[in-house]
Amino acid sequence: MSKLVYGVGINDADYVTQIKEELGVSGGKRKQKVVWICPFYTTWKNMLRRGYSNKFKIKQPTYKDVTVCEEWHRFSTFRAWMQAQCCEGSHLDKDLLVPGNKVYSPESCVFVSRQVNNFFLDRGNDRGDYKIGVDWHKQSGKFKARCNNPITGSREYLGLFESEEVAHQAWLSKKLEHAYALAATQTDPRVAKALIARYENYGECNV
To answer: Which of 76, 111, 146 delimits the end of a domain?
Structure first.
């Protein structure tokens, strides 16, 4: 039996999932380079890495409690699901449809475009000392609000405000406006609905 992937994954593919090129021997060890890898296998392996690699979880602590459903421990099962999705050029998302979800599964996962994926990047822990969308503007002694536009890719200036909360609300209002615009470009109605719901119910989702 082949070695388990990240301790749990079973690669039961009936074809070669990656091709390596021999580079010769160096220091008594054979050197190889991967020249092709199955895109389904890449997505599956990366998912297992996020769920079961201790090294990865140390670097990305938000994945500390993330796991993968048991049926997706088997590559062929995940591949069959992925083949039924519109996934070309997209990213596997585990918590857009189910905010706060920690388990990769067919019920909770969906493929989203890079544009949608980037739309949620400002929900991370590296946003600074203030609420999302807010910075302190030293020159004016006020709070500055800005918001990324997912359509143009630009960072929009929303103004200066007396309080952090008012500045944050300006950001949230603009974010919801952009969510509607981005939702209108989606072909998957689940993604469109989730984009809007995420910011209409922002306090409940605790993004």
So the answer is: 111
Is 131 found in the same domain as 71? no
- Euclidean distance between CA atoms 37 and 19, whole angstroms: 6
pLDDT in tens, 147-185: 999 999 999 999 999 999 999 999 999 999 999 999 999
Q: Identity (one letter) of the amino acid at 79? A: R
Predicted confidence at residue 64, as pLDDT, reads 96
Number of folded domains in the chain?
Answer: 2
Domain of residue 185: give its range.
Answer: 113-207
Among candidate residues 155, 158, 164, 159, the one with its CA nearest the CA of residue 136: 164
Contact residues for 65 (Cβ-Cβ < 8 A; gap 6+):
102
Averaged pLDDT of the chain: 92
Domain identity same for 80 and 143: no
d(CA 148, CA 87) in angstroms, rounded, equals: 25
Quote the radius of gyration of the chain (alpha carbons, Å). 21
